[in-house]
Amino acid sequence: MNEKCSVSDILSSVNSIINKLNYSIEQANNKNFRDICTQYRNVFENIQWNVYEFAKSKQYYVPAAPAGQADIDQVKQTVQNA
């Protein structure tokens, strides 16, 4: 397996863990458990960011272009009308 595939797999795995932690936080009935899950989610979000930055620096991942002002205005209008 090459480095690009490994980085993609790591990022996918980290994203999956974050999703599972978010679900656990949403469903938690115990404050201590919820707080622990939140702490781990924050740790994994930092890992996710570091892996993303690495992938971007190696050009394994090219982020989408920033939204234009017209797109931003359209979303704002949609949300305001909801």
In short:
The chain is mainly alpha-helical and 82 residues long. The chain has 3 helices and no strands.
- Main beta sheet: strand number and arrangement? none
Instruction: Tell me the number of helical segments per DSSP (H or I, 4 or more residues long).
Output: 3
Give, in order, the helices and strands. HHH
- Overall spatial form: flat
Mean pLDDT: 95
CA radius of gyration is 17 Å
Query: Helical proportion?
Result: over 70%
Instruction: Count every beta strand, where a strand is a DSSP E run of 2 or more residues.
Output: 0
User: Which regions contain 5 or more consecutive residues with pLDDT less than 50?
Assistant: none
Distance between the termini: 47 Å
Q: Which strand-content bin applies to the residues?
A: under 5%
Tell me the domain tally: 1
* Classification by helices and strands: mainly alpha
Report on the structure:
The protein has 82 residues and is mainly α. It has one domain (3-81). It has 3 helices and no strands. The protein has helices spanning 3-27, 31-57, 69-81. The longest helix has 27 residues, at 31-57. It is flat. The chain starts with a helix and ends with a helix.
Considering the chains and any ligands shown, give keywords for the structure.
single chain, 82 residues, mainly alpha, flat
Question: What layout of secondary structure does this protein have?
Answer:
Blueprint: H1 3-27, H2 31-57, H3 69-81
Helix pairs in contact: 1-2
